[in-house]
Write a structure and sequence with these properties.
homodimer, about 625 residues, alpha/beta, Ubiquitin-like (UB roll), six-stranded mixed sheet, Beta-grasp_dom_sf (chains A, B), Raco-like_middle (chains A, B), iron-sulfur cluster binding (chains A, B), Raco-like_middle_sf (chains A, B)
């Protein structure tokens, strides 16, 4: 097989590859590629690179996504371009994107109740008159301290170390007890050290919280992009990758556990501790991330009737998952609710204590999939709405994630203005800005109820008239030019196109239909909903007014909206710090009735109605 | 490092080794060496080989054990001879010894109560209206069949295969349930197949019984020498090897599990089944074998106060021990009683049901260590007597194990006669023949009460006078020539020397002292013992009359002696076939009081008294 060399600029990173490898694969291998929203399927056109040397003819996929000028300048899609000779490539956004990840939280009070208990004891010396085994003397010492468990067990690995541990420590040892299991015996008194990490594994980002399990104190928060993103931006493309690629499941499993191990390393370094002091990990994740994390095929989640392999909460040894913490530790995986309503939603419910509320509350966790739960202590119903990637900026003409360079908010109040994440010139718009933009079009009468741009000469609102010149022809329809080419970082204009509005309509229509159907399932009307809680990153960044104007959330509820921060992360923390709460999560997940939207009678009509806008 | 070549004859087995390697090491590596009674410490002189080419000077160790003529002929000890140049070696007994292993048994009735249950079920199809996970549907199907376990759990490995297993089998699966654990899910109905293997791991031999766990039927019995013997013939030399040699523990652990895997292979081949159909293994072993099997250091057993690391009964996954059976299986390790009274004694007690007996019974399992248990349903006491290797033929001038070529019984009734295992010319004598020989000397007045040969001219018994010529001078004392040089397989005479009688006195003295001390501990006299049960290979081969004549067993009890076959093996079988009996074994082991002989007041005097013979 012919070997060729590819050099990435800036940075002059040089990588040998087999001829025929795509640029995307080479980027992944060299650690440069983390952000391929469509997973390399040639659908999103986001993986632009400029070929400086070794250029060849463009492909049909390049032609679909790039202008004639771009093609002439050597711009190509990394996923579509094969490396057949030595090449030099310029990466358009060479720095790994610095994502904004929600880490503030509104925690609720709860009691710490550790899963694992550490007990220090001086074990009796063996004697000729008593001839008790090491294990028996350890058990009796624990019983003497009130830690009396009938038929205490230990894994072989612990028993194998026991004789040396006792003798090397002069019989002064700390025993790590989990239920009826002795998971570890350590030299000396280590009871003061009991750390753990709570993880919220999202499709896009992974957040880890390093906690002191004795005090409950949060020591560090770390986060990273989910490296699975290089194999597909959404859960469906990852399910496809896991099923179709050789070792696809293993690759995705190791990608997420590898990222978790790195995060653990980062957190313990920052906190000045070491990973061997970690005895617990808790995990909240959507059902697909949950299965991939566990190394279980998510195949059945992706096809009708969309069932998961397992929903039950699990306790797993870290070694089984390749997680590098103390071997005496355990991994606590929160239960899923149903095929598309995962352990992340269980974590949100655990944090929000929905099952204890007297009044009916609507909880929305909006992402590529929107998880919606409606209910109170009497009854809870949930559904998952396939919003698609619009809220995350994917499949939007100038769309991008909520990262450095993204316009995140637009205001039409006092002439057009916008804010950019990280300041500086903008690169594109993220979901929250798309919401603001379209909400503005609705309020200024620039689109009709079907979402179609009015002809510029038909605009009547004074605010709209001021923006008239920004309406330009794009792909034979109208588009709104938010930023002109000269003002952007890459020299291309930032637009909101007719197609972008359609994408948003599909997304908001799915969520709104889900809310509507849950109301029907509960037999309640909008006014019965006393509170709306927005969880997750997008929910916390969006402008509630815009969400209500476009009909993502019923307008009547605008004054009842609250954001609750990264509730899934908070739920994971609570589950890690309290065995009782983790146990409660199991009951909680089982107590939620799941409504499958796709098979709900009249879903298509309800969905279509909700894609429309209500004009004043 | 210089490499040299050693060729073994017969067979022309050629092995490259580093210069300086001993012949014993080379034999071990080439699979030729299994029988080094002293473990290569130059103590027993049993590892004779003849150097045909590449001979060098003999060592001081050779000189201790070999005659001048042997040395001149090139006979050397394999353990003492280094290979410094290319060599050709003749092995004296090149065929692996075919040991006689007791496999007949007197089984008691008990109810089969499998540890693992197989349940066949048709699992419901997933549906859009129910959206239940694969795991939940499996649980519900099991519950529908009456197998309802609260909070049923499954290891990750089972969950990972579950989606494929269900779909590839059209939802017709067999679930392997152990307690609250689902250990396996198999395609189709496999409930008819549930096999297991009970192991009795002895210091010298390993016996395996292939059982049908559904019917209790014994399908095959297989046995092998314990390959650990190449690292030491007795438990003390193995404890030393495990502690002193690099990776010694691991080597011994893998030697025994490797042998077990081979035995499993042999048994399933014979029975026409496969190892994946085995779901259970039970293990009875003395404490040292128990620890080595589990990979736990036996170091503390070998030094005062002689405690084990663990006595408690254990259930272990086969993979943790490297045992190659179905991954859904489990290994059931019987509990030890104390440092030198192991799980093999527990198995004997389980088979003999000592704790249910109304009358006081003495159970003897005699080997290098003699395990002695005395008691009834009211109380049980046990001790371990360090008999030394005499009963196994080691450190006896013409001694050997009870293998092909061994004289196993001697009769003085009608002139001198003997029987040879495998017939043919004899090679040496095993323990049971040594007993007969010395018993004859006692009855014919050829030795005094201290065990010393009388001068030939002082013999008076007519039977003794006939044997007068067989008394020869050997190492400045008298010896009894049992077989003259011309009648043996190797051309050397077979003797019972003064030293051999001393060794036997130490051995029988230790056992008899143990019996005596247990009687004291119970506060009973000989006549209170209503039954004597002899367990194990030696106990079943020895002549009870000889044992009583030499005082190994009190003479008053001769008529009350019964042999109970390989009771340890029977106990292992019972524990494998019945979870209730395995559970009972735990209580049983805890209900036996251990008497440490070494620290018993007056032990030395009692021991010394019991080394004497009672003459008529």
């Amino acid at each position: 097989m012919k070997e060729v060399r590819i050099v990435f600029q800036p940075g002059e990173i040089s990588v040998p590859v087999a001829a025929g490898t795509t640029i995307m694969e080479a980027m992944n291998r060299s650690g440069l590629g983390e952000d391929f929203p469509c997973g390399g399927r040639g659908k999103c056109g986001k993986c632009r690179v400029k070929v400086r040397e070794g250029r060849e003819d463009f492909t049909a996929i390049d032609e679909d996504h790039l202008t004639a000028q771009e093609l002439a300048e050597g711009v190509r899609l990394a996923c579509a371009t094969k490396i057949n000779r030595d090449m030099m490539i310029e990466i358009q956004s060479p720095k790994k994107l610095q994502h904004h990840i929600l880490i503030d939280s509104a925690e609720r009070p709860f009691h710490i109740h550790p899963h694992l208990v550490k007990v220090f004891a001086e074990i009796a010396q063996p004697s000729l008159s008593e001839h008790k085994s090491d294990w028996q003397r350890l058990q009796e010492s624990l019983a003497g301290l009130g830690c009396s468990v009938h038929d205490l067990q230990a894994p072989l690995s612990v028993l194998r170390r026991l004789p040396d541990t006792l003798r090397e420590s002069a019989n002064r040892v700390t025993t790590v007890v989990y239920g009826s299991q002795v998971l570890g015996v350590e030299q000396g008194d280590t009871t003061g050290t009991l750390l753990g990490m709570a993880f919220d594994i999202g499709t896009t980002t992974i957040v880890g919280y390093l906690l002191d399990l004795n005090s409950g104190k949060e020591l560090e928060v770390v986060s990273t992009l989910n490296p699975q993103a290089q194999y597909g931006g959404d859960v469906i493309s990852r399910i496809t990758f896991a099923g179709k690629e050789e070792k696809g499941l293993e690759t995705l499993h190791q990608a997420v556990t590898g990222a978790m191990n790195k995060l653990i390393g980062e957190a313990v370094d920052k906190a000045g501790v070491n990973r061997n002091q970690l005895y617990g990990i808790s995990v909240a994740a959507n059902t697909t991330m949950h299965h991939l994390f566990l190394g279980i095929t998510p195949r059945t989640i992706g096809m009708s009737p969309y069932v998961s392999a397992i929903n039950q909460g699990l306790v797993v040894a870290p070694g089984e998952l390749g997680l590098e913490i103390n071997k005496a530790g355990r991994v606590f995986v929160l239960p899923n609710i149903a095929g598309f309503v995962g352990a992340d939603t269980t974590a949100v419910l655990l944090a929000a204590e929905l099952e204890k509320r007297d009044h009916v509350t609507l909880i929305l966790d909006i992402g590529t999939n929107g998880e919606i739960v409606l209910g109170s202590k009497d009854r809870m119903v949930a559904c998952s709405a396939a919003a698609g990637p619009a809220f995350e900026g994917a499949q939007i003409t100038s769309g991008m994630r909520g990262a450095d360079g993204a316009i995140d908010h637009i205001s039409f109040d006092d002439g057009l203005s916008y804010t950019v994440i990280g300041n500086g010139r903008p690169i594109g718009i993220c979901g929250s800005a798309l919401l603001d933009g379209v909400a503005g079009f609705v309020e200024l009468g620039m689109i009709n109820k079907r979402g179609k741009f009015l002809e510029p000469e038909k605009l009547t609102h004074p605010g709209a008239l001021k923006l008239k010149d920004r309406l330009i022809k794009y792909e034979e329809t109208w588009a709104f030019q938010l930023v002109e080419a000269g003002q952007t970082r890459h020299g291309r204009p930032i637009l909101i196109t007719q197609n972008d509005i359609r994408e948003l309509q599909l997304a908001k229509g799915a969520i709104a239909a889900g809310v509507r159907i849950l109301q029907e399932a509960m037999g309640i009307v909008c006014d019965d909903i006393k509170e709306v809680l927005l969880a997750g990153a997008f929910g916390n960044y969006l402008n509630p007014h815009s969400a209500c104007v476009i009909g993502l959330i019923p307008r009547e509820l605008e004054s009842r909206i609250k954001t609750i921060g990264n509730a899934a992360g908070n739920g994971a923390k609570i589950a890690l710090l309290s065995a009782q709460e983790f146990s409660r999560a199991k009951d909680l997940a089982g107590g939620v009735s799941f409504v499958e939207l796709g098979s709900y009678p009249g879903f298509n009509t309800i969905f279509a109605q909700n894609t429309y806008f209500k004009l004043d």
